[in-house]
TrEMBL record:
<dbReference type="Pfam" id="PF04095">
    <property type="entry name" value="NAPRTase"/>
</dbReference>
<dbReference type="GO" id="GO:0047280">
    <property type="term" value="F:nicotinamide phosphoribosyltransferase activity"/>
</dbReference>
<dbReference type="InterPro" id="IPR016471">
    <property type="entry name" value="Nicotinamide_PRibTrfase"/>
</dbReference>
<comment type="pathway">
    <text>Cofactor biosynthesis; NAD(+) biosynthesis; nicotinamide D-ribonucleotide from 5-phospho-alpha-D-ribose 1-diphosphate and nicotinamide: step 1/1.</text>
</comment>
<dbReference type="InterPro" id="IPR013785">
    <property type="entry name" value="Aldolase_TIM"/>
</dbReference>
<dbReference type="GO" id="GO:0009435">
    <property type="term" value="P:NAD+ biosynthetic process"/>
</dbReference>
<keyword id="KW-0808">Transferase</keyword>
<protein>
    <recommendedName>
        <fullName>Nicotinamide phosphoribosyltransferase</fullName>
        <ecNumber>2.4.2.12</ecNumber>
    </recommendedName>
</protein>
<dbReference type="InterPro" id="IPR041525">
    <property type="entry name" value="N/Namide_PRibTrfase"/>
</dbReference>
<keyword id="KW-0662">Pyridine nucleotide biosynthesis</keyword>
<comment type="similarity">
    <text>Belongs to the NAPRTase family.</text>
</comment>
<keyword id="KW-0328">Glycosyltransferase</keyword>
<dbReference type="InterPro" id="IPR036068">
    <property type="entry name" value="Nicotinate_pribotase-like_C"/>
</dbReference>
<feature type="domain" description="Nicotinate/nicotinamide phosphoribosyltransferase">
    <location>
        <begin position="1"/>
        <end position="245"/>
    </location>
</feature>
Length: 304
């Protein structure tokens, strides 16, 4: 997932924080503020990367009649071994895929591949599942396909697709399901997100809240919690807490009944002092998931 969200954030600071969070799990970003933030706060010299890419104004400034020249310029402007992305829906995405990339510039695209380069075609409008599969079909007809070990179609390595419009948890699942139904491998497509990635969330998105659970008053420990009769979903945990792994699952033990020796939480900031200075690679390692532990497609198809 590539971060296109900088220009849609409410401030540079918002973009930096949201973009840094995105980079915990990904390395593709156009949000420069996030890189600066992670370099300053988490000692990461370069947390993310990008590639040369066109956008609509750099294509449409050539005029409708000059679209072929604009596309050719993208191929010629950068060294042969580079990956470049070219937005291709300025006027007619189907014509651009079939006539421009698939015919007029076909040999130039193939030549780029001989030096290890890749053209990434970017549609940016329409119904994402429909558009992605139709673009793949057109490009497959023009450049051919191979079949991977799982029986799915794969474009040649010198041409790929990126879908950066209308991306969300829900639409990602729909796109991949439509690709699967039409026998296309997911390795053909990269994804990006702008409007939804950095700030289309609130504290209830993942039910995140900070609550006091324990206090010492006049040298006496007191459990601190709320338990509203009108909504049990707002009950808060009480007492001294520990986070332990029980039967392979992270489990919070309340009321001081946990084993402090097994507590996975450690003090990081206390009384104005930073006790543990994690670097960004520490955070990335901690965030890693075993692919066998999660059904990605089922997760992405949730109605979020």
């Amino acid at each position: 997932m590539h971060d296109f969200g900088y220009r849609g954030a409410s401030s540079v600071e918002s973009a930096a924080i949201g973009g840094a969070a995105h980079l915990v799990n990904f390395k593709g970003t156009d949000t420069i503020a996030a890189l600066s933030c992670l370099r300053k706060v988490y000692q990461c010299s370069m947390a993310g990367f990008s590639i040369p890419a066109s956008e609509h104004s750099t294509m449409t400034s050539w005029g409708r009649e000059g679209e072929v020249d604009a596309c050719r310029n993208m191929l010629q402007q950068f060294p042969q071994g580079m990956v470049i992305a070219c937005v291709s829906d300025s006027y007619d995405i189907w014509k651009c895929c079939s006539e421009i990339w698939g015919k007029e510039l076909r040999e130039a695209v193939i030549e780029k591949g001989t030096s290890g380069g890749t053209l990434v075609v970017r549609p940016d409008s329409g119904d994402p599942p429909t558009v992605v599969v139709k673009c793949l079909e057109i490009l497959g007809a023009a450049f051919g396909t191979s079949t991977n070990s799982k029986g799915y179609k794969v474009l040649p390595p010198y041409i790929r697709l990126i879908q950066g419009d209308g991306i969300s948890y829900k639409s990602l699942g729909a796109i991949m399901e439509h690709m699967k139904l039409n026998n296309w491998s997911i390795e053909n497509v990269g994804f990006g997100s702008g409007g939804s990635l950095l700030q289309k969330l609130d504290r209830d998105t993942q039910k995140c809240a900070y609550k006091c659970s324990y206090a010492v008053i006049n040298d006496k420990g007191v459990d601190v919690y709320k338990q509203p009769v009108t909504d049990s979903g707002k009950n808060s945990k009480k007492g001294r807490l520990t986070l332990e792994i029980i039967d392979g699952n992270y489990t919070t033990i309340e009321n001081g009944k946990g084993d402090p020796e097994k507590d996975l939480l450690i003090p990081v900031f206390e009384d104005g002092h930073l006790l543990k200075d994690f670097d960004f690679e520490d955070i990335r390692k901690r965030a890693e998931l075993n692919p066998n532990d999660i059904d990605i497609l089922a997760f992405l198809k949730q109605d979020n």
